[in-house]
Amino acid sequence: MAWTYLIIAGLLEIVWAYFMKQSDGFTRLWPSVATLVFMGASFGLLALAMKSLPMGSAYMVWTGIGAVGAFIVGVVFLQEHLSLLRVLAALLIVGGIVLMRLAPAQ
């Protein structure tokens, strides 16, 4: 169940990052509220996952899902710049997550 919590926490990190962008520096009320709600839910699920997962693995996967997901959302929905180097950077993050997941937790 911990990995499920962790994946959902990572997906919620993408959501709060999007709403943080929409909040315009916390100057718009509802996007700011959404940022805080989704941030709290993401942190809460991360904390639940860390009860049984190693901290380093959990945190790396959480931030990796958030970073790559936010990159994709930025490109797809916010028309942010897409380049070969940015895609390569995202793939390296995904590769790191996969290697962390495959590595023994000893």
TrEMBL record:
Database matches in Pfam families: Multi_Drug_Res
Compartment(s) where it occurs, according to its Swiss-Prot or TrEMBL record: Cell membrane
Sorted UniProt keywords: Cell membrane, Membrane, Transmembrane, Transmembrane helix, Transport
InterPro entries noted in UniProt: EmrE-like (IPR037185), Small_drug/metabolite_transptr (IPR000390), Small_multidrug_res (IPR045324)
Main subcellular localisation: membrane
Keyword Transport: yes
TM stretches of this protein: 33-50, 57-78, 84-103
Keyword Membrane: yes
Protein topology in the membrane: Multi-pass membrane protein
Family classification: Belongs to the drug/metabolite transporter (DMT) superfamily. Small multidrug resistance (SMR) (TC 2.A.7.1) family. Gdx/SugE subfamily.
Designated name of the protein: Guanidinium exporter
Provenance organism: Brevundimonas denitrificans
